[in-house]
Amino acid sequence: MSDHQQKPQSHHSPPATSGHINVFWDDGMLDHYTGEGVFHSGINLGFLEVLEKHLENSDRDRNMLSILKQGPISPFLSWHSSSAATVTEILSFHTQEYIDSLIEADKKRWKDDL
Questions:
Q1: How far apart are CA 72 and CA 36, in angstroms?
Q2: Contact at 8 Å (CB) between 22 and 78?
């Protein structure tokens, strides 16, 4: 098909959009601890002057949130309240084994912090 030819119209048109992107947010997302150190292990092998935060840390997330709310695309965003996903919702994308491994890792982290 040449560049000037139109593609045949589909019987299933995409839904019309308002030109807005829906953003679902809950401030509880800022509480997620992502670790620090060498590969975010919390371990300093003596090579680092300062243990670095994981790339997806809460300071970076706050900055991204600020950019989205105050930056040039802010007029195109529609904000909605959200909450933590339930296990049932997470199972839409992940296996039970994966979820169990995350729960165990979280328990271990809190146990190690005590």
A1: 32
A2: yes
**pLDDT for res 99:** 93
Give the residue carrying structure tokens 């620090």. Answer: 36
Task: Assess whether pLDDT exceeds 60 at residue 1.
Answer: no
The neighbour count for residue 28, using CB atoms within 10 Å, is 10
* Rounded Cα–Cα distance for residues 82 and 17 (Å): 21
What is the model's pTM?
0.58
DSSP helix/strand/coil, 107: helix
Alpha carbons within 13 angstroms on the beta-carbon side of residue 72 total 0
pLDDT in tens, 40-63: 666 777 777 877 777 788 888 999
Cα distance between residue 9 and residue 46, in whole Å: 63
Q: Tokens 């150190």 identify what position? A: 37
Which element (helix H / strand E) includes 97?
Answer: helix 96-113
